[in-house]
Amino acid sequence: MDAHSRGRADDIDPADQWVLNPQTGNYELRLDHSAGQPQPAAPSQPRPRTARGATPPAQRGQGGTRGRGVPADPGLAPPPLPGQRRRRAAEPVDRQAAAGRRKRRPETSRKKKVLMWTGGTMAFVLVGGAAGAYALYNHFNNNINTIDVVGAGSGGFNKGESFNILLIGTDKRTGDGNSGYGDKNSPGHADTTILFHVSKDRTNATAMSIPRDLVTDIPECQTKLADGSTKTIPGQSDVRFNISLGQSDRDPGCTMRTVKELTGLTVDHFMMADFNAVKEMTTAVGGVKVCLAKPVKDSKSHLDLPKGESIIQGEQALAFVRTRHSFGNESDLDRIKVQQQFLSSMIRQMKSDETLTSPTKLYGLADAATKALTVDSGIGSISKLQSLAGELAKIDTKNITFTTLPVIDNPAEPRPITVVPDPEKAPRLFAQMQSDTSLTEVKQKEQDAKNAQAQAQAKLLQGARSTAHEVRVDVYNGSGITGAAGKTIEWLQNEHGVTRSTNRSNAPERAATTTLTYAPNQADQARKLADLMGLPASALKPGTQDAGEREPMTLVLGADFKGAGVPLTGPAKAPEGAQTADKQVCAK
After folding, report:
1. Which residues have a Cβ under 8 Å from the Cβ of 355 and sit 6 or more positions away?
2. pTM for the whole thing?
C-alpha cells in the first residue's frame, strides 16, 4: 500500500498521519482517528502501525517512497504521543483548505536557526519531537558512543553562560571502505580539530580550526583504558598538536586539556567523528553543494570534480575534505580553508527547507550522526544532546564564523614544516572568544567606530584640556599580553608625565577591546588620555555619576592593544580569512 492509498477506506487523509505544527516547527504523528468515531481499516488494507513501530512518513510528493522505520516491540504498549490531536467527528473536511494548512512552514527565522556541523543531533530533535516514539528514542540513544574523559570538561553547560565544544576528526581507519585513507598504523590522531565557541546570549559562535602541525605543549592527562583502569600519561613539550589524541593511549580528554592550556578557554565537551561520519551524513542529506574555482582530478585523494558547483556525498565528500594537493599551496592550512567551506555548506544544507521538511532525511541524518559520533559522557544521551541542540539552534548561520588559529612558521626549524601560534594575533583571537566578541559584526562595528570617532573629534575641539599631570588613571591588563599594563604605565609616566597612573595588574577577565571608563566630571582627563594613546571614540565609556576628587579613571587594555605608544585605530578586527557559514566560497 503506498502513500496515496493508505487510509482511504476510513476517510483518513494520509498526509494527516504526519503533520507539520507551525507553532513548534515539528512534525507530529497523528495515529488516533476522529474522537468517538470508530474507523476500521478497509479489509484489503493492513492497519497503520502503532507508535511503537511507527514508520517515519514518506517525503511528501514522492508517491510510494517511505521513510526508514524502527521495528515494533509487540510486548509493550505504545506510550502517549506529545502533541497528539483528534479530528472533530461531525465536521465536514474541506480537503483544499486542509492541504493548504499542511503546506505551512515554520517561520523563516526559525528555519534559519541551525546546529553546528554535527547537525545530526538537531535532526534528532526534529524527528524525535515528531515521532514521540519510545522505540525511536531508544534506537538513537543506543547508537551513541561515549567516552568518560577523566577530569576534563565541565560536565555540562548552563543557559546564560558561554560554552565550548571540541570537534575532532580522527585519521583512524575505521568503517567499511576506509582502508585506503589516512595512516594505516595510526591509533587515531587529531587530524581535524575545531574549537566551537558559543556566546552567552547565543547570538553568535566562532569555529576556530587548530592546525594538526601546530607545535605546542601537551599537559599530563589521565585516560581510562579498556579494562576500566586509569592511566596517567606524562606531558610533552614542543610536540605536534595532533598527537594529543591517540598517541600513548591519549583519549579526547587529553586533547581537551591541550586546547585549554593553549587558548585559556575551558572545553566543556567534545564530539569526535571518523571517516564514515562525512560519508554517511552527506549521503543522509542528499549531498552537499561545493564550488571549485578550477577543475580537480587528484590521483591521491581520488577527488574528481569539474569547475563550478557540484553536489557531493559519500566517497567524493570524504575525498574533498581530505585532499591536500588540489587547492592553494597544498599545505594543511589550505586544506583547513577547504574543510571550513565544506562545513559551512553542510550547515546550510542541513538547515534548508529540503532537509527540515523531510522526515525521511531527518531520520537518516539523525541515525547517521548518532552512529558516527563519539561524545563525552556529559552529553552522552539523546536527552542531553536534545538540550544542547536547543541552545545551538538559536544561532543564525550568518553569525557562525569559521576561522583558523593564527600561526607563523616554526622559527626553530631551518626549513619549517610545522607552525607555532602567532605571538600577537593568537592571544587577541583567544581574548575575542573569551569575551564573546562576534567576528561577524566586526565590519559594522568598524564603520560605527569611524562615525563615532568623527563625532567625538568634533566634540574634542570644543572641550577643555587637562594637562598630563592632572590625569588620574588605573591601568588593567586584559590583553593577554604579559606585562602590557606595566609597559603602558612606564610609557605614560616617562614619555608624557602622567605620573598619577597606577598599574593594577591583570583585569578580572580578558577583554576583546581597550576601554577607558570615566565619570562626567573626568571628561577633560579622558580627552587628554585618548589624545595621548590614540584611543578611538568607541573605546570611551562615560559614566553617569561624578567621581570623587582623587578618584581615578579605569583603563582596561584589550586584545586590540598593539603596544605602549602604538595608537589604536578601531575595534578588534576579525582574523584574516574568516568566513561565515551563510556564504558559499569557491575552493581555489
Report:
1. 123, 285, 286, 349, 361, 362, 365
2. 0.62
